[in-house]
């Protein structure tokens, strides 16, 4: 039987990239999306049509919080890739109900339909997040492997950016975080992603439906929303460079992340759907390398030929982590996954795409300015 895959949040840049890959490999695809203006802007019908450049793709406008939309979307589907989610770390700290409804209730409704309605679903792939680890794994010269808690407002207020050993209070250094690491969400967003994982693990397991849980690191690439102020930093920084605005770095700019190109992220998902080697596993998807935010900013400026220096602001947001990068050995063993596009090739490729997109009017308040102002007004971000 030919696989028919439902991709929720399917009109986002990861969903569309995955759809193209799956169709190329002989699958049929249905995309379910509520077309959130925060992600897509306000779309006209022609603009909506231009988003879908893949043959054999069916598009349904619907909401994962509506049972009737799940019932319609799951008709004749053999696999689900559940990408739909609210994704802003800072925003989640004050839109708690919205994030819980979409991320947790939406996932619960999917599983409720699978438990109570007739269906043909034989696999569920959940897109989770590295945020569930909080700070993740560190090495202490005295205590060995440690998992520091969320950084306190008091420490951040005096510019103490680096976490310390929770046992001896000594200096520690980040190491690759394995899937067996302690989970310690530092934001509401992260808490909802961990709740999604538990729901899928328990319910799909009880229903006898094979499942995979992918903890994605920072996915970037062509097609990423340039409208959403809660999207990845490559899009945020690129927007500001294009508008002639300063690239503003939080804290001291030395915080690090693991960046994986969307082409590698969708390859991991395709491998998970086409193989049973990862069934029942929770796996990291990333590059396995840590890169500082300042390095990303300077690299983007170089390719945009922007000669200004990034502005190290000392600002910080409650709920942000300092460092995190993935141990990707498990997904390598289980699915044969290995990232193919290094950052030094992915950034210029991303910049070439950004240059083809409309530039926001110079001098206008962009979405990032508005988002930061909201956080400051609520006491969740400090200047």
Topology:
Elements lengths: L3 E5 L4 H12 L3 E6 L3 H4 L4 H7 L5 E5 L5 H7 L5 E4 L6 H4 L3 H21 L6 E7 L8 E3 L3 E3 L6 H5 L15 E2 L13 H20 L3 E6 L1 E3 L12 H10 L5 E2 L6 E2 L1 E3 H13 L7 E4 L5 E2 H12 L6 E2 L3 E2 L11 H7 L7 H12 L12 H11 L3 E2 L1
Parallel strand pairs: 1-2, 1-4, 2-3, 4-5, 5-9, 9-14, 10-13, 11-16
Antiparallel strand pairs: 6-7, 6-8, 12-15, 17-18
Helix pairs in contact: 1-10, 6-8, 9-11
Mind telling me which CATH architecture of the largest domain this is?
A: 3-Layer(aba) Sandwich
pLDDT < 50 stretches? 40-44
| Number of separate structural domains | 2
Largest sheet: 7 strands, parallel
Classification by helices and strands: alpha/beta
Helix fraction, binned, reads 25-40%
Tell me the number of helical segments per DSSP (H or I, 4 or more residues long). Answer: 14
CATH superfamily (homologous) name of the largest domain: NAD(P)-binding Rossmann-like Domain
**Whole-angstrom Rg:** 20 Å
- Cα distance spanning the termini: 57 Å
* Overall morphology: globular
**The top level CATH class name of the largest domain:** Alpha Beta
Please identify the oligomeric state: single chain
Q: In percent, how much strand structure appears in the residues?
A: 15-25%
């Amino acid at each position: 039987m030919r696989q028919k895959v439902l991709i929720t949040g399917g009109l986002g840049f990861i969903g569309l990239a995955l759809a193209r890959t799956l169709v190329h490999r002989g699958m049929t695809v249905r995309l379910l999306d509520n077309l959130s203006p925060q992600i897509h802007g306000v779309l006209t019908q022609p603009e909506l049509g231009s988003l879908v450049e893949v043959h054999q793709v069916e598009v349904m406008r619907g909401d994962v919080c509506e049972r009737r939309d799940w019932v319609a979307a799951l008709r004749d589907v053999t696999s689900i890739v559940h990408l739909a989610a609210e994704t802003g770390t800072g925003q989640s700290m004050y839109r708690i109900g919205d994030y819980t409804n979409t991320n947790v209730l939406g996932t619960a409704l999917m599983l409720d339909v699978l438990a109570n309605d007739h269906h043909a679903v034989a696999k569920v792939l959940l897109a989770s997040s590295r945020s569930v680890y909080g700070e993740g794994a560190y090495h202490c010269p005295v205590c060995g492997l440690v998992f520091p808690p969320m950084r306190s407002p008091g420490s951040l207020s005096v510019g103490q950016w680096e976490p310390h050993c929770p046992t001896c209070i000594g200096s520690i250094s980040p190491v690759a975080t394995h899937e067996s690491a302690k989970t310690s969400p530092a934001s509401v967003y992260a808490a909802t992603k961990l709740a999604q994982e538990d729901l899928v693990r328990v319910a799909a397991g009880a229903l006898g439906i094979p499942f995979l849980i992918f903890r994605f690191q920072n996915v970037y690439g062509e097609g990423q929303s340039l409208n959403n102020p809660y999207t990845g930093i490559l899009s945020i920084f690129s927007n500001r460079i294009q508008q002639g605005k300063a690239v503003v770095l939080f804290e001291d700019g030395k915080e690090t992340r693991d960046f994986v190109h969307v082409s590698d992220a969708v390859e991991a998902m395709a491998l998970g759907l086409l193989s049973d080697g990862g069934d029942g596993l929770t796996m990291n998807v990333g590059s396995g390398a840590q890169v500082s935010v300042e390095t990303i900013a300077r690299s983007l400026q170089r390719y945009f030929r922007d000669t200004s220096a990034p502005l190290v602001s000392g600002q910080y947001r409650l709920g942000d982590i300092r460092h995190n990068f993935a141990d990707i050995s498990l997904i390598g063993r289980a699915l044969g996954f290995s990232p193919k596009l290094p950052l030094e090739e992915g950034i210029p490729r991303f910049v070439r795409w950004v240059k083809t997109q409309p530039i926001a009017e110079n001098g206008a308040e962009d979405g990032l300015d508005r988002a930061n102002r909201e956080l400051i007004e609520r006491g969740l971000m400090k200047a």
